[in-house]
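RECORD TYPE: inverse folding
INPUT: structure tokens
STRUCTURE:
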């Protein structure tokens, strides 16, 4: 059961990697205005990534997958970065050292720029509705 859960974390990690940069760009361009759930989900995911990298030294999804596989008695399918593993598996070559951290930094910076750019915009505020009166 834990091995299956680790496999799902592996898949979730892939989805995150593929969607992180496009989501940051969409956030910067204002796509999430009026879409609070998507805006908050994006910011939560990026915050977890940045915090995990800062405190764990790696993506928290790698740490979670590692813990689940260890408890299931399995070995990790990769020994280095998840992204390096995927790029090597898909293309046959590994990206330069530090490129994964650089990609993570770009996503984080674009996300922070989106928050700063759209802070206090009118669509983030709760609209005031006029009371409905009944005329006699």
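DESIGNED SEQUENCE:
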């Amino acid at each position: 059961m834990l091995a299956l859960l680790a496999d799902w974390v592996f898949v979730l990690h892939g989805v995150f990697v593929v969607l992180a940069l496009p989501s940051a760009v969409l956030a910067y361009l204002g796509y999430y205005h009026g879409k609070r759930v998507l805006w908050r989900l994006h910011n939560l995911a990026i915050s977890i990534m940045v915090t995990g990298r800062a405190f764990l030294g790696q993506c928290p999804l790698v740490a979670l997958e590692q813990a689940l596989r260890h408890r299931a008695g399995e070995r990790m399918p990769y020994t280095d970065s998840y992204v390096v593993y995927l790029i090597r598996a898909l293309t046959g070559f590994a990206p330069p050292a530090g490129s994964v951290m650089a990609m993570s930094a770009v996503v984080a910076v674009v996300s922070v720029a989106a928050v700063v750019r759209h802070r206090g915009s009118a669509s983030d505020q709760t609209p005031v509705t006029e009371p409905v009166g009944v005329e006699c």
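NOTES: DSSP finds five helices and no strands in the chain.
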